[in-house]
Design goal:
By secondary structure, this protein is mainly beta. The chain is 0% helix and 34% strand. It has strands at residues 9-11, 15-21, 26-32, 38-43, 57-59, 66-68. Strand 2 (15-21) and strand 3 form a beta hairpin.
Length: 85
């Protein structure tokens, strides 16, 4: 599965559910063990998290549902402590 990304795939009883990151959207696909074909299941209505490797996908063993992570907002602060001993 050339387009499958790290942590963006999950093994089910009869195949592999995986995400591809396309230019316009992220898409979910299924590789079938029985016929060795990849089928596109659809586009996600959001982008999967890409911040510091927090993205991930998990699917149920029967392949009926899957869960992916998304980040709506990310913020960080830089604090400088000067003169500490």
């Amino acid at each position: 599965l050339e387009n499958a990304r790290l942590r963006l795939w999950s093994v089910t009883n009869d195949g592999i559910i995986f995400l591809t990151i396309e230019q316009e959207s992220d898409e979910i696909h299924r590789y079938s063990f029985s016929d060795r074909r990849v089928r596109r299941l659809g586009k996600l209505p959001f982008r999967v998290s890409r911040i510091a490797g927090f993205g991930g996908l998990v699917a149920s063993r029967d392949g009926r549902w899957s869960l992916v992570s998304a980040t709506d907002y990310w913020e960080s602060d830089i604090m400088v402590a000067d003169g500490l001993r």
